[in-house]
Structures are given as structure tokens and as C-alpha cells.
Amino acid sequence: MKIQMVDLVGQYKKVQREIDKAILNVVHTGQFINGPEVIEFQNSLEKYTGANHVIPCANGTDALQIALMALGLRPGDEIIVPAFTYVATAEVIGLLNLVPVMVDVDYDSFNATCSNIEKGLSAKTKAIMPVHLFGQSCDMFPIMSLAKKYDLFVIEDNAQTLGAVYTFPDGTKKQAGTIGQIGCTSFFPTKNLGCYGDGGALMTEDEELFDKIRMIANHGQAQKYHHEILGCNSRLDSMQAAILNVKLKYLDNYTNARRQVAQFYTSTLNSIDEIITPQEVPYSTHVYHQYTLKIKNGKRDKFKKYLADEGIPSMIYYPLPLQKQNAFKKITRSAESLSVSNELSESVLSLPIHTELTTGELDFITTKIKNFFN
Fold first, then answer.
1. Strand-pair category, 99-103 with 78-82
2. Please, what is the average pLDDT of the chain?
3. DSSP string covering 287-326, please?
4. Nearest CA to 204 among 368, 54, 4, 321?
5. Residue among 349, 335, 330, 355 nearest 114 (CA)
6. Is the pLDDT confidence value at 372 over 90?
7. What pLDDT is stored for residue 335 in this prediction?
8. Which of 26, 216, 274, 352 is the most exposed place for a label (fewest CB within 10 A)?
9. pLDDT score, position 336
10. Rounded to an integer, what distance in angstroms lies between the CA atom of residue 216 and that of residue 109?
């Protein structure tokens, strides 16, 4: 049985006619940059997320960097970031000569909490970059309250959680990525909404930030050849936008398929003492970008090798927390011991989860897992 971590070809085949038509339309019009497909996608994503403004860009890392550039920060300013996450969030902070301040994450949700973040604050703190990891939102109400108290910006890294809905204590609902001053996302092919190359977007409610972000992403110009500020070249090309226009229509279906896979895994594996299945928080829906187990008693690496020998792929997200990465050792500050991030890096393992997994494949995977732990 050939099992894949992600089956992009299988997903494509289900919408092949629509995708092929969309790509050919771009080729026939010849408008490969800033074509009408980009505007259509911008409008569609605004409608889907409820964001006032969406600014498409070249990739998710660019989105994070542009967000920081738009805030008028100065070298040496500190930005709070979780230690257990993908490198891009902290990488862009360092590239702009800002200081990434590492905070620990919650063991159950994998996300930074308000109390974690508060431990990292100093007189130099200017912004918080919460990362909605693996498919569910951080608890944003207390984070936004903390930011308001200390007059801090909030940039949400929503690369893994597009479509997740956060519920505030008063019952109000908003999508993850639309709560802070700026939200950033990625359309890397393996994301829940992925294109066939690189792509990203920023979201904001703020008109002034919207105008500035658009200029930064387009060489700092609002009018062609008139450059008001220093910017960069970060555009979502028309072909990727055309693909995303098709796939956005199916995003909720993709999410439901992922949730069904997750429910199958959890119901089948919950009884195994040496496995901790993902915990769903009460304030956010979960879109399951990853299905990440915690393996007890130091058995993670042996278990991963066993799965590989049985033809079952798995991934470790992430084997080394950011504070231990050589790139950050000289430029970062850690707010605390980061013991949870260290523990997670030694115990997490993500199983295959995608829209094309069959019941037969899931039975095979879970049977092999149970055999290992019995």
C-alpha cells in the first residue's frame, strides 16, 4: 500500500478540468503578473475570511516580513515569538535587525499563551507574533487584551490555520488571521489551501496599513515609478491566483475531510497509553493542517523508524526549537527555560493527513501503530 504524507496529485485529479481551464485562461490572456485572477482571488479571500483587506504576495515568509516592515519598527526593537514553530516567523525578525524574543508554548495546544507572552515583555517590546500552529488558533482574546495594555502590535502567523474560527468570550466569532492588526498566511502547495508554487497573503482591517502594505509589496510605489518608501518585489502571480480561485471553493470540503481523518485517528489511538493525541481547544475550530502525536517514554524515534519500515511516512515538526538553532543563538533572547518547547521537539510526530486518505489506508496505518505499542 503506497501511503503519502500529502497527496497533491490525487487532489488535483478531482478538480483537474477546472484547474486546467483556469491555467489555460491565464496563458491565453498573457497577463501573468497582476492579472484579473489576482483581484478575483483577493476579493474571494476577503469574502471567505471576513477580512476588510487582503493583499496577495509571493509567499508566506514575505507576508511576515512585509507586515513587520509596515509597522515602522527600529533595529533593536523586540518581537515576541514562540520557540516551537517553523523558522520563518523568527527569521524575518532577525533579517530586519529586530530581536526575536522566544517564549514557551502550551503543551496541549502547541501554541503560545498570554502568560507565556507576558513573561517575554520588556521596555523594548513592540509586537507579538502569535503562531496558530498545526490548525487551531491561539487564544487571541487575552493576547489582544495584553497587547492593548502595553500598546503592542499583533501580527498573526496564520500559515497553518486558514479557515479556523476563533470564538471570543462574548460569543463573537472571527477567523484566525483577522484578529490582530495584520494576519499573514501561506499558500505553499502542502497547505490546506495550496497553490502549485509559492504564494502568500496579508490581511488587515486598517486602511492605513493596507495602503502601506500594498506599496511595500510593490517596490514601495502606489503610482508606477513613483517610490514613496523602500519596498520589495512580492507578487502573487496570475497563474497561482487562478489555481487558488478554484481551490478556495473547496476549502471547507478539504477541511471537513481532514477533520474526518483526525477523528478516525483519535478514536482509534486514544486508548494507547504511550500516545497523546491532539487536543482540541474550546475557543477555536481545528482545521488539522497536521495531525501531531506526542510519543511518551522516549520512543518517538524508534516508532518513526518502525512506521517507515512499514511504508508509512511521518514527519517531525519540529526537531529543534528555535532557541537551539545556530542562526538565532547570537541574536535572540529567551524569556524563560522553554522546557515545553524542548520536550515537544523530542516527542512530536505527525501522521499522514490529507484530503485523499481512504478508510483502507487509515485502517492500515492505525493497525500498524497499535501493533507497535502492544
1. parallel
2. 97
3. --S-EEEEE-TT-HHHHHHHHHHTT---B-S-SS-GGGSG
4. 54
5. 335
6. yes
7. 80
8. 274
9. 80
10. 34
pLDDT for the residue 1: 73
Query: Can you tell me which residue has the cell 516567523?
Result: 89
Which cell goes with 83?
520557540
Instruction: For 4-54, give the DSSP string.
Output: -S--HHHHHHHTHHHHHHHHHHHHHHT--SS-HHHHHHHHHHHHHH--SEE
Residue 129 CB-half CA count within 13 A: 32
Instruction: State the chain's maximal CA–CA distance in angstroms.
Output: 68
Supply the pLDDT for residue 2.
87
pTM confidence score: 0.97
The arithmetic mean of pLDDT across residues 327-354, rounded, is 94
Amino acid at 148: K
* CA triple 28-32-37, angle to 5 deg: 85
- The cell numbers describing 29, all together, are 490572456
The three cell numbers of residue 240 are: 497561482
CA-to-CA distance for 325 and 342, rounded, in angstroms? 12
Share above pLDDT 70 across residues of the chain, in percent, rounded to a whole number: 100
